[in-house]
Design brief:
By secondary structure, the protein is of the alpha/beta class. Helix content is 32%, strand content 15%. The chain is globular. The relative contact order is 0.17. The protein binds pyridoxal-5'-phosphate (PLP).
Length: 387
């Protein structure tokens, strides 16, 4: 093993989370636990909700505060950020909002999260081809992505960090390559935002779910629109919120579309979720992404080395620049392993997509002791479940 730094404390103590008292939680890549401070925030939302018109003022203030924090996290302007209900909704905006011609193609990877693939299948009837980049031993290379791109490639859709293998792609090189081919880059930063730096400008569209590494909850997701690159991108869905002001009743079909990313928000936000996200981002930005990245990479490095020593077949690259918080290994015994660990109070995430894999996620509340507890429990598995 390389030089190991023992991490005795989380960047946020476990005592500040709900439900972590007697649990080793290594599953933030699936569902992260909730901060206790979210309770106060949800209570604040409940009180604000009683204030009738004034409630909207407070809710909109919270949305604006939250967007400013997302903008800081992504190093972009708040005007480039929309808050939607899910990442999947964000991707569908591209399917139904961009102008597609027969012969166009979309490039995506075989180990991509389904929401970065399935929406494009709706374009097949318009003659749009979906080109799948094949992984090699679970590794996706920029060269292989480049080979799939041609003059008719409209979008390359990919995750910065893979939900399935844990591989982190070099966003700057990817962006440079995709743009030099004349295509758009759509990035899912669900497994990178809140863990490693996310330079959103390198993408043209970015989505991120908030209930995992961002420590918030469902019902709100981030949608970044690179307005310099997609100035005239018209939203496919409209509602009262899409308009700068409520139309005059005498001309109810006349309206001015909002100019910023908020034109992709047709109705009210999931305010209660936005309150929670705002609080979660407060904590993440207070600590700072560089600190979180250092913490997470040290732990995922310890974990990866330990799993390798136990003989598990790893999917996640070894080099720290090519991974983030997810370390994934293959097994035919997902359910039995996940269950055996659960019995010992250790939570990981299984998953099957043609191959069985277990994903172990280290986040800012984890410590080296958590990693050692997991490795110890895997060592004690019955022979039939071991590699
Ligand atoms: C890469 C990635 N994107 C998106 C999601 C979730 O998408 P949504 O916000 O639409 O539920 C997941 C969930 O596992 C994911 O792994």
């Amino acid at each position: 093993m390389d030089h190991v730094v023992r991490i005795d404390n989380g960047l946020i103590p476990k005592s500040e989370f709900i439900g972590l008292e007697n649990i080793v939680h290594l599953a933030a890549g699936g569902e992260a636990p909730m901060l206790k401070s979210h309770i106060e925030v949800v209570n604040r939302f409940m009180s604000d909700k009683a204030l009738a018109e004034n409630s909207r003022v407070r809710m909109d203030d919270t949305v604006n505060r939250c967007k400013n924090k997302v903008a800081t996290l992504f190093n972009v302007a708040a005007e480039d950020i929309a808050l939607l209900s899910s990442s999947s909704e964000g991707i569908n905006n591209l399917v139904y909002g961009l102008k597609w011609k027969p012969g166009d193609n979309v490039v995506a990877c075989d180990v991509e999260f389904p929401s970065e693939i399935l929406p494009w299948t709706r374009l097949k009837e318009k003659g749009v081809e979906i080109r799948i980049v094949r992984n090699r031993d679970w590794y996706v290379s920029l060269k292989d992505i480049e080979r799939k791109i041609d003059k008719r490639t409209k979008i390359v859709a990919i995750s910065q960090v893979s939900y399935f293998t844990g591989q982190r792609l070099p966003l700057a090189e990817l962006s440079q390559m995709v743009r030099s081919c004349g295509a758009l880059l759509c990035v899912d930063s669900t497994h990178s935002a809140g863990v490693i730096p996310v330079e959103a400008k390198l993408a043209d569209i970015m989505v991120a779910s908030c209930y995992k590494w961002l420590l918030a909850t469902h019902g709100v997701a981030i949608f970044y629109l690179n307005r310099d690159r997609l100035e005239n991108f018209d939203p496919p869905f409209l509602g009262w919120h899409s308009s700068v002001s409520i139309p005059d009743w005498k001309e109810p079909t006349v309206f001015e579309l909002r100019a910023n990313a908020d034109r992709f928000e047709p109705g009210n936000h999931g305010f209660i979720s936005v309150y929670v996200l705002d609080n979660a981002l407060e904590q993440i930005l207070r600590i700072g992404v560089p600190e979180i990245e250092k913490h997470v990479l040290e732990l995922s490095g310890q974990l990866r080395a330990g799993l390798e020593e136990l003989g598990f077949e790893l999917m996640t690259p070894q080099h720290p620049s090519e991974r983030a918080g997810n370390v994934c290994f293959m097994t035919q015994h997902i359910d039995a392993i996940v269950e055996a660990l659960k019995e010992k109070g250790i939570l990981v995430w299984g998953g099957y997509a043609g191959v069985g894999r277990v994903r172990v996620s280290t986040h800012l509340y984890n410590t080296s002791e958590d990693v050692n507890r997991l490795l110890g429990a895997l060592k004690e598995l019955p022979k039939s479940l071991k590699p």
